[in-house]
What we know:
Number of strands: 12
CATH architecture of the domain at 252-392: 2-Layer Sandwich
Strand order of the largest sheet: 5-6-1-7-8
Order of helices and strands: EHEEHHEHEEHHEHEHHHHEHEEHEH
Oligomer: single chain
Amino acid sequence: MERLIFHIDVNSAFLSWEAAYRLQHGEELDVREIPSVVGGDESRRHGIVLAKSIPAKKYGIWTGEALHSARGKCKDLLVLPPRYWLYVQCSRAMHDILMEYTPRIQKFSVDESFLDFSGMENLHGDHMELAENIKERIKKELGFTVNIGISNNKLLAKVASDLKKPDRIHTLFPWEIEKKMWPLTVESLFMVGRATTKKLNNMNIFTIGDLAQFDVELLKYKLKSHGEMIWRYANGLECSDVRKSNYMEMKGIGNSTTTAFDLEDRETAFRVLLSLCETVGIRLRDSGNCCRVISISIRGSDLLFYGMQKKVDVATDSTRRIHETACSLFDRLWKGNPIRHLGVQVTDLCCSDFFQFSMLDSFDYEKDKKLNIAMDEIRLKYGSGSVMRSCFLNSGLPPLSGGVGEDDYPLMSSML
DNA sequence: TCTGGGGTCCTAGGACCC
DNA sequence: TCTGGGGTCCTAGGACCC
């Protein structure tokens, strides 16, 4: 059966949402119309561009760039601090509108969704009119613009929504591939990043068309399974379902943070690890899972990145257990160099319905479990800052870390 | 380009088993 | 024990996405 898939993408999401909010609250200036960016706090070493306006883009400013460097390109650049609670609200409001059109929605990220309209032609009529309707409703009711890409699979719909911005609708049906997609540079294809672009360029592949017409066996030989996948993408071949994401299927949960200052001693590092384990633990328990693998990652002040993981004998969702493992990993991994960034990840998740315990240690599972539950409930009810471990008092370190922003936003469920 | 944070999947080597 | 092959588990690291 022929499918009909839409991909909806908010234009410069964080910046558009800031602009819409400010206008709704009586500000005269539309920050989308001047060189502006949403950027992190430089004093805490989070100073990068998270989103840019179109005028800022004209100065050559790119997402992920250091604010310092962005200011070098544009003297009068307006830098807005991020407000993640607002972005979550905007994202939900858009989702609510989309739900009125079809229940078959896949939320791909905070600002992107796939919609499946297959077999609903009688309900909605012409796909261009439908897209126009959705786009205008979002603009009128929420105050920001989106791009909509239309095709009969997710890959082509996504490429289409990226064509020309902002506030546009594009189709990219199979018969339009040669004209609309093949002339694009190969790095504009989904799943072709910097490393792959370099390899492809070395093989004389520069456009998506070059890739589509290349020998697939040779690509497989050079790039393994990834080579075959991007070759299929270049030919518009993709057939995955628009599926409701649900957090039972989640593969892992992690939190990491760039600390405000370099960490030089193990005790401080342990404390930062604890603040990360708290956040990971809360999210893990909220998802109804336990984990079997715990890993940590370190980025030194030299910016080099390394990590280590451990499989634990008994699956756990205990903040304390995760922290103990994280610390022992840290002692094996750390070489004594100054630390800029720490991360904690849990993977190999399993359902927490049953509770396994080992008789080989003296750990009081029941007591620990009750403590975790009590802390989670208090934080949910009174906010994430309402309880903290005493070791964070006067430490200069946040008691919970990782996640987006340190403002006291309501704890998010692990699924967007 | 000089670097935030949260994810997914893949590959390859070593250990250990039969 | 001087030497096969195959399977699985574990771990490190790379590449990509937003």
